[in-house]
Write a structure and sequence with these properties.
Layout (H helix, E strand, L loop, with lengths): L3 E4 L2 E4 L4 E7 L5 E7 L6 E6 L5 E3 L7 E5 L5 E6 L8 E8 L11 E2 L3 E6 L1
Parallel strand pairs: 2-11
Antiparallel strand pairs: 1-3, 3-8, 4-5, 4-9, 5-6, 7-8, 9-10, 9-11
Length: 118
């Protein structure tokens, strides 16, 4: 089973930027980011397929950018224009599908905390 480790979280002011990273122990076909705020269910943020197909939730479209390196073992999430509502634990996820739907992710990392102050 692939292991995932995230980094890059922190505290920023509203309007600021952060870049999250996730290192995978081997190359998943599909990867993505999810987030969970206190008292809320985990929600999909963005995903990237084997051929670099990208998908975004409406909440982050136009502000966040998902990408991964050429080796396809490191995943990134560039977050710009951060809002207080973006405060959450952000987790990296992997999928055995090349262009996964939200329900097709099978493994998550422990997460990295992002806090956006108003």
């Amino acid at each position: 089973q692939v292991r995932l480790v995230e980094s890059g979280g922190g505290s920023v002011q509203a309007g600021g930027s952060l870049r999250l990273s996730c290192v995978a122990s081997r190359r998943p076909l599909g990867m993505g980011w999810f987030r969970q705020a206190p008292g809320k269910e985990r929600e999909f943020v963005a995903s990237i397929g084997w051929r670099d197909e990208t998908k975004y939730s409406e909440a982050v479209k136009g502000r966040f950018t998902i990408s991964r390196d050429g080796a396809k073992t490191t995943l990134y999430l560039q977050m710009d224009g951060l809002l207080p509502n973006d405060t959450a634990l952000y987790s990296c996820a992997s999928s055995p599908y090349s262009n996964p739907e939200v329900r097709q992710f099978t493994t998550w990392g422990p997460g990295t905390q992002v806090t956006v102050d108003s």
